[in-house]
């Protein structure tokens, strides 16, 4: 990869040229080339329409967007929330497999939930979407919403949150710049560059205002009871903890999340435990697990009830990661740390 | 029969076909020693860096002695918890589960006269899995071990009823009925998973289906050791009866063994034992299959020798495999069933090549 | 199991009335709706060697199984020395009656001593180990069949004749008073056949009562004191070999023509089949 900076390129080159080099740009956006400055809102923008056709490499699948998609189905909360945050509610024909309630400020009350789980191919096709935006790569499988190639043949474009890529390149270590890149990419797909730019600027400001809690150690306890599943060193949990200056006790594992070991948790004796709240695994249940295990019951954080709760949907790469960082910072402050 | 016993030295020609056996007592003593050593060594191994002196101190303290005796160290409550609440119960559970599964495997293989028989033969594992998965996913209000055990027993009854309804309860028919029940319960388990698994619960279920000892605490030790003492020890003493089956049911019956009553008594006992083990560890494969064969290679085929040796070997095997699961990818955990399969399948293939007896 | 009074009906099957050790009466057995054993009476004096003969499917093995109790008779009675064998506990019965079967496809992995030690099963308490007395019995049994030097050989490596002798030793280790042998000479060469049956005869000479299901009429004629002839599950003749084995009977039961001669040395019947 030679181009380190797709956004710089975008500023200099006319959009058509840019579109021709779309593959390159897309790849760059996906492979952790994140040092690039994000275009300023004041940056000279051409009319949205001129961006099409847009070619993107998404998780190893090449997409050609002829025009801004109008009938969009989202799978999982991160994709739904990103659409709403970019003001694209009117494009949504439905969303599926939500991880939890959508925050009120994002709206979306009128978007129908078409399935609690990953919907099947026929259920998806009946809705006649022209674009499906999924939070996990595995949502696109023959026994899920359909595999990407077959959907493409039917004229349905598919898009996966780049941070969740498994089959192709994903950021070696997720950073907020990668999240912002994705916001920008989704913005360009839907011709909502301005909204994207504004959102990114807003989030960047919020990040800058976070108070650091340097020296605090934490366990990011996502799920599991016998074997804890925890936020590790390379994904959204680490990125969020880094933003606040928290030290992750599982940072040594080069994954986004990992199966961990209670012994290692007890050995590390973290200052706080961050509990991920979801419909299927409440924070309360996790506290119960921690208390019922005689070894973890003696952890300082458990004894002193230093628990922090974050909603699951905010812990996967997306528009709510900054919010998650804010929540944690606030609760840390409340705990006096 | 008045001839006096005079053991003549074997002729040179037949000497090379003779098999010299290591005395059973020696084997039992050696394996018991290795088992003890394995427990002591494995408790010092783990993701947390704890010195042997600390381990010694912790053990002494909990056994009511002065922790500083013989150079023991006093630990912080947290580090002490790692040894006494996490490692010790887990290692003891591993030993009991390994012994129980190997015992069940030996009995199953002898009684069905099928070298491929294993403790999960009669649908036990799939029944237990269904019970456990139902608890994990549907939040049924019972404890997981209870549900797993109930599932195992229900599966066993279904197998026996099905085999009985199809005619006389022959080993072959019973095994086939077990296969049918296993497939059906397996499908139900998949259905429950497919229907209700959300997000990360898949991972928890997978770890349970593959078998894992990461949740083993003292209550698990009580269940596994209790089952081993109550059911396993009596089973260990049935070797002579099992040996009587060497030439088939008829021969056993002519030797005064109640063939049917013995078979059902022993099958029920192994079901009980396996059910208890599965309830604390999930279904850990290969232990019950390969350990008895490995022991037979060394100690011959007499069940009254193979039974206690298999139990000891199973305990040692699972302790070390689980130590591997805890430490190989430190601080990550591996479901122990993955390791037993990774180690067990090649060993099984090796045994197959070595023991031409398995036809 | 109901015990009917046997005395009236078995008289004609007796060869030496009054000294019976084994007397079975009106045994019947049905397998899958088919009458396999049809009112069979058996009677053997103490220390005699009886032979059950008859074509394939006549019920020879089934009869032995009924006598040893491994198959449950539908009706009839089996008395041994006045004791009701069928009413006895299985374990007690196994100390009185032993069955030696043919096991060609050895797949046991046991050593010869282990196999013979199996014969001690009904004598050793269930939860105990064998004692020196048991080991002595095993050694004696091996000596009796001339297999002492094979003690530590894997059973599966033996020849057919050797295996059969070990099975005999296993049965002898039960210290039975009645020995049942199911086709003990099948697949054996002539020498092995003769040596095995000589061993059995040596045991009957010492007081053991033996009953063997046999295929070979000449073997039966040469060794058995009395012969029971089965056809389709029923007794067609019984008594001393010399009086039972006639050309007519052989023609009737086996459907082949034969002349019954006298053995030039032993004086026993010698059957010469008409193969023209």
Automatic annotation (TrEMBL), chain A:
Task: List UniProt keywords, sorted A-Z.
Answer: Signal
Q: Which residues form the Fe/B12 periplasmic-binding domain?
A: 71-337
Write down the Pfam families for this protein, in alphabetical order.
Answer: Peripla_BP_2
Annotated signal sequence range: 1-35
**Transmembrane feature ranges:** none
Its family remark reads:
Belongs to the bacterial solute-binding protein 8 family.
What protein name is recorded for this chain? Putative F420-0 ABC transporter substrate-binding protein
This protein's species is: Mycetocola manganoxydans
Automatic annotation (TrEMBL), chain C:
Which Pfam families does the annotation name? ABC_tran
The UniProt record lists the keyword Nucleotide-binding: yes
Q: Which SMART domains match?
A: AAA
> Which GO terms label this protein's molecular function in UniProt?
ATP binding; ATP hydrolysis activity
- Highest rank taxon of the organism: Bacteria
Question: InterPro entries of this UniProt entry?
Answer: AAA+_ATPase (IPR003593), ABC_transporter-like_ATP-bd (IPR003439), ABC_transporter-like_CS (IPR017871), P-loop_NTPase (IPR027417)
ABC transporter domain residues are: 22-257
The entry's keywords: ATP-binding, Nucleotide-binding, Transport
Q: Identify the Gene3D superfamilies for this entry.
A: P-loop containing nucleotide triphosphate hydrolases (3.40.50.300)
Coiled coil regions, renumbered to chain: none
- What protein does this entry describe? ATP-binding cassette domain-containing protein
């Amino acid at each position: 990869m030679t181009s380190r900076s797709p956004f710089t390129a975008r500023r200099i080159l006319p959009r058509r040229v840019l579109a021709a080099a779309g593959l390159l740009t897309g790849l760059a956006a996906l492979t952790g080339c994140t040092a690039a400055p994000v275009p300023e809102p004041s940056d000279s923008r051409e009319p949205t329409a001129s961006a099409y056709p847009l070619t993107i490499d998404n998780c190893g699948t090449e997409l050609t967007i002829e025009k801004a998609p109008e009938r969009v189905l989202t799978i999982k909360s991160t994709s739904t929330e990103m659409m709403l945050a970019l003001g694209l509610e009117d494009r949504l024909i439905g969303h599926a497999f939500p991880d939890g309630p959508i925050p009120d400020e994002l709206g979306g009350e009128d978007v129908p939930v078409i399935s609690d789980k990953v919907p099947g191919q026929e259920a998806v096709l009946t809705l006649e979407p022209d674009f499906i935006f999924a939070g996990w790569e595995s949502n696109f499988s023959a026994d899920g919403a359909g595999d990407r190639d077959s959907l493409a043949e039917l004229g349905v474009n598919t898009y996966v949150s780049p941070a969740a890529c498994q089959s192709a390149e994903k950021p070696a270590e997720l950073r907020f710049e990668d999240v912002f890149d994705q916001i920008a990419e989704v913005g360009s797909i839907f011709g909502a560059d301005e909204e994207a730019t504004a959102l990114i600027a807003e989030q960047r400001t919020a990040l800058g205002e976070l108070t650091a809690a340097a020296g605090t150690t934490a366990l990011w306890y996502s799920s599991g009871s016998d074997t804890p599943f925890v936020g590790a060193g390379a994904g959204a949990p680490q990125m969020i903890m880094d933003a606040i200056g928290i030290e992750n006790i599982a940072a040594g594992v080069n994954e986004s999340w990992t199966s961990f070991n209670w012994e290692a948790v007890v050995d590390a004796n973290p200052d706080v435990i961050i509990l991920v709240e979801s419909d299927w695994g409440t924070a309360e249940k996790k506290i119960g697990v921690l208390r019922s295990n005689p070894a973890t019951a003696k952890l300082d954080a458990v004894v002193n009830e230093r628990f922090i709760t974050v909603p699951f949907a905010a812990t996967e790469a997306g528009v709510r990661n900054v919010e998650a960082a804010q929540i944690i910072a606030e609760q840390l402050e409340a705990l006096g740390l | 029969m008045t001839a006096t016993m005079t053991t003549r030295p074997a002729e040179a020609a037949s000497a090379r076909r003779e098999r010299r056996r290591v005395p059973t007592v020696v084997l039992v003593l050696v394996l018991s020693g290795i088992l003890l050593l394995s427990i002591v060594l494995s408790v010092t191994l783990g993701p947390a860096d704890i010195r042997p002196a600390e381990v010694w101190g912790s053990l002494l303290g909990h056994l009511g002695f002065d922790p500083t005796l013989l150079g023991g160290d006093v630990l912080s409550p947290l580090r002490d918890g790692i040894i006494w609440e996490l490692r010790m119960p887990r290692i003891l559970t591993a030993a009991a589960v390994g012994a129980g599964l190997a015992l069940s495997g030996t009995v199953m293989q002898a009684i069905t006269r099928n070298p491929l028989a294993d403790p999960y033969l009669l649908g036990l594992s799939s029944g237990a899995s269904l019970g456990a998965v139902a608890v994990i996913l549907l939040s049924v209000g019972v404890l997981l071990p209870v549900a797993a055990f109930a599932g195992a027993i229900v599966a066993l009854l279904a197998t026996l009823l099905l085999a009985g309804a199809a005619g006389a309860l022959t080993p072959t028919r019973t095994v086939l009925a077990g296969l049918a029940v296993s497939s059906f319960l397996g499908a139900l388990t998949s259905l429950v998973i497919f229907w209700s698994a959300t997000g990360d619960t898949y991972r928890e279920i997978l770890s349970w289906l593959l078998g894992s000892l990461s949740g083993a605490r003292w209550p698990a030790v009580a269940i596994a050791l209790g089952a081993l003492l109550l059911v396993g020890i009596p089973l260990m003493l049935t070797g002579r009866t099992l040996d009587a089956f060497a030439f088939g049911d008829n021969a056993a019956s002519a030797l005064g063994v109640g063939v049917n009553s013995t078979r059902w008594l022993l099958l029920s006992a192994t079901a009980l034992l396996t059910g208890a083990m599965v309830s604390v560890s999930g279904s850990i494969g290969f232990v019950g299959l390969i350990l008895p064969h490995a022991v037979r290679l060394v100690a011959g085929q007499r069940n009254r020798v193979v039974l206690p040796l298999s139990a000891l070997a199973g305990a040692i095997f699972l302790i070390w495999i689980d130590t591997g699961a805890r430490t190989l990818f430190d601080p990550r955990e591996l479901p122990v069933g993955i390791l037993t399969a990774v180690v067990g399948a090649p060993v099984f293939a090796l045994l197959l090549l070595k023991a031409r007896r398995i036809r | 199991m109901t015990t009917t009074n046997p005395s009236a009906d078995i008289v004609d099957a007796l060869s030496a009335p009054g000294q019976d050790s084994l007397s079975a009466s009106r045994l019947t057995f049905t397998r899958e709706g088919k009458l396999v054993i049809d009112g069979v009476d058996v009677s053997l004096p103490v220390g005699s060697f009886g032979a059950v003969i008859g074509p394939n499917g006549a019920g020879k093995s089934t009869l032995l199984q009924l006598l040893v109790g491994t198959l449950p008779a539908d009706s009839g009675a089996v008395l041994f020395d006045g004791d009701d064998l069928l009413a006895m506990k299985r374990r007690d019965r196994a100390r009185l009656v032993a069955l030696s079967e043919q096991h060609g496809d050895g797949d046991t992995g046991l050593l010869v001593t282990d196999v013979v030690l199996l014969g001690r099963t009904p004598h050793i308490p269930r939860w105990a180990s064998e004692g020196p007395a048991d080991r002595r019995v095993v050694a004696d049994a091996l000596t009796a069949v001339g297999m002492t030097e094979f003690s530590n050989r894997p059973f599966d490596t033996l020849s057919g004749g050797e295996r059969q002798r070990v099975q005999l030793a296993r049965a002898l280790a039960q210290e039975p008073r009645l020995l049942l042998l199911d086709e003990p000479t099948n697949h054996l060469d002539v020498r092995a056949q003769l040596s095995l049956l000589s061993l059995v005869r040596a045991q009957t000479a010492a007081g053991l009562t033996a009953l063997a299901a046999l295929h070979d009429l000449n073997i039966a004629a040469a060794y058995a004191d009395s012969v029971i002839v089965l056809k389709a599950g029923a007794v067609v003749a019984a008594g001393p070999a010399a009086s039972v084995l006639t050309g007519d009977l052989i023609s009737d039961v086996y459907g082949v023509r034969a002349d019954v001669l006298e053995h030039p040395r032993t004086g026993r019947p010698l059957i010469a089949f008409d193969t023209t």
